[in-house]
Amino acid sequence: MSEISASIGGYVCGSGAGPLVVNRIFDRPLKADPAKILIVSFSNPGDVILSMPCYRRLQRVFPDAVIDIAVGVESEQLMQAFDLQGDVIVTPSKKTISQRIRFFSLILKSRYDLIVDLRNSYFGLAAKFGSGIFSPRNKSVHRRDGNLEHLDRLGIHNPAVLPDAPDAHRAAVGKPYNVSIAPGSKSDLKRYPTSSFAILADRLIEAGCVIHWVGSQSDTQVIREIQSLMSADSECLAGTLSWKEFRHHLESAHLLITNDSAPLHLADDIGCPVIALFGPTDHKLYGPQRSYSSSLRSDVACRPCAKAQCQKNQRDCLELISPETVFNEAVKILDLSGANQFAGGASVCKNKK
After folding, report:
1. 278: CATH
2. Which of 45, 99, 106, 51 is nearest to 72 (CA)?
3. Is 218 within the bounds of a domain?
4. Is 296 exposed, middle or buried (0-12, 13-18, 19+ CB in 10 A)?
5. pTM
6. Phi first, then psi: what are they for 187, rounded to 5°?
7. Closest alpha carbon to 276 in 304, 290, 295
8. Backbone Cα Rg of the chain
9. How many domains does the chain have?
10. Residues 1-56: pLDDT tens digits?
11. What is the pLDDT of residues 124-155, one digit of tens each?
12. Beta-strand runs (E) in 204-293
């Protein structure tokens, strides 16, 4: 690697004009093959998962390096689901000035050769004022690709960013089909209606699928509500699995049906087929990228609004995605031979582009 943007003893900061070497604060040369690397990732689990392709690319380019990753408190347990070759550093949940200084001091003492700050936060502030160079996030591309652009600007290239999918995920063969459904989301506005989930789950069970409801402990209430509306029995695993166990669960699942949430990104990352249901958020930024997965969303003019509250006091963007449409898409992905597809169904967009 020739020139790499660096500051604060190896801090990475990309520039739209191309890679630059900046050592105005600590004049210490950056190693061509860094032995110790830090990725400053995010707090939200979904965002952290979307940053893991950066971690894997650095693993491939610098196989002998120790690569640490800094994440928020709520993503600390998530890191058990990934093959790491370094430590997990938990960033302060409350970013007071004193906490920032202590954390910043800790990182300086660690003497990293290379720091990749995806957040443009702790170290981005120092680099901005120390060198005048700041790399704004490209908000027009998928978040996974936007994170990788930080490395592209440094000349750190490696095209393979998603792991190969297990054979079971390339083609679902035989029955029963293990289908996981994640009905939760941090925002109520991003949740598919419970009644629609109930109809969908009953129809999948009738077609020969085994349904597992997945999510966090906070999702159990909405799952119980869905199950109360169902005719068939289904199993709730929400709140019973660690992130590592949840990853293993998805590796044996034939399909995940989910709202825009962290399970979507983990399933897509490991290769589990996904049907993602999008309401106010943009599938182009957060949807699954595997060719065999789908993003379903209604064709309403106001979406994607990316609002926390619906400005029209309604949720047409999700309610117009009928359970019939979702079931028919599952039939195609699972190749449910002999299953009768629902007729009709609301018009939705399926392609990811």
Report:
1. 3.40.50.2000
2. 45
3. yes
4. buried
5. 0.81
6. -105, 130
7. 295
8. 22
9. 2
10. 323 333 333 333 333 322 223 333 333 445 678 999 999 999 999 999 999 999 99
11. 444 433 333 345 666 778 899 999 988 888 78
12. 209-213, 235-236, 255-259, 274-278
